[in-house]
Amino acid sequence: MSFLGVAVVRQFERGVVFRFGKLHSTREPGLRLMIPIVDRMRKVSLRTVTMPIPSQQVITRDNVSIGVAAVAYFRRVDPVACIVAIENVQAAIGQIAQTTVRNVVGRSALDDVLSDTETLNESIKEILDRVTERWGVLVELVELKDIELPQAMQRAMAREAEAEREKRGKVIAAEGEALSAGKLAEAADVIASHPIALQLRNLQVLGEIAIERNSTIVFPAQFLDSVRDLGAFVGREATTAAAPEAGDGRGRQEARSTVTDGVPDGHPVPVG
After folding, report:
1. Which of 14-23, 34-43, 111-120, 183-192 has the weakest average pLDDT?
2. Which of 44, 53, 124, 191 is the most exposed place for a label (fewest CB within 10 A)?
3. 139 vs 186: which has the higher pLDDT
């Protein structure tokens, strides 16, 4: 209705008025009056625009071909510059965003693209913001949302990740064995100092086994000790039995020597 001299500017818009083709003024939201036929108004939305950046085939610095898609958020802050400085600001931002994504990702290694995306996002945003500033546009955010890797690279990375997990698992298991060996050595020293501790531990193990299964269990923990005690007992008994026999033999030999010494040579020794 601007040709009738009346225009309604909504809250999120600004109206740029041209009079005889020349920039005249900027109108705020509300009902605005203009000179019919002489004035023309173009409305500019100041809301944030979400612009998807299509997937780009990029070769990284380490010569890996990947597909990168992103999304950009921008809004127009200068209605006059958006109309006067450039013909189609949204199309221009889309093209420069695609080019910037290819350039920034192409200068980075694959590991940086996968692990340090925040730095890449900030770099792309700064470049776009610097280029679009003269168009009256503020780039608020740029995010890499999809990274496509070749199948061979995905398999290689999966093998690398699996090997890394196995390495960590072996290291953790080795550390656990080292700690366990140290604790077992300390426990062995304690048990050697206090033998009754081994018996208490045996009773604790029997109690734990009895809780899990209701069955009869033969626990030959003291078998070797019993054999050792039995051998010691037999040895003591043998020593005790051998001592009297040795004493009787020495007594008879001494008595015989005494009798022989009391008889003259050449005479028989009386017997009985």
Report:
1. 183-192
2. 191
3. 139
119's CB contacts (< 8 A; 6+ apart) are 112
Tell me how far apart the alpha carbons of residues 256 and 258 are, in angstroms, rounded to a whole number. 5
- Cα–Cα distance for residue pair 99/84, rounded to 1 Å: 24
What CA–CA distances, in Å, run from 144 to 60, 99, 105, 226?
Answer: 15, 14, 10, 76
Residue 202 or 98, more confident: 98
CA–CA separation, 28 and 152 (whole Å):
57
- Cα 268 to its chain centre, rounded Å, is 108
Among 75, 20, 15, CA closest to 42: 15
pLDDT digits (tens, 9 = 90+) for 106-151: 998 888 888 888 999 999 999 999 999 999 999 999 999 888 888 8
Determine how β-strand 65-76 pairs with β-strand 137-148: antiparallel
**CA 270 vs CA 252, 259, 267: distances in Å:** 16, 9, 9
List CB contacts of 237: < 8 A, sequence separation 6 or more. Answer: none
**What is the Cα–Cα distance from 116 to 138, expressed in whole angstroms?**
24
The per-residue pLDDT for range 235-244, each reduced to its tens digit, is 777 888 776 6
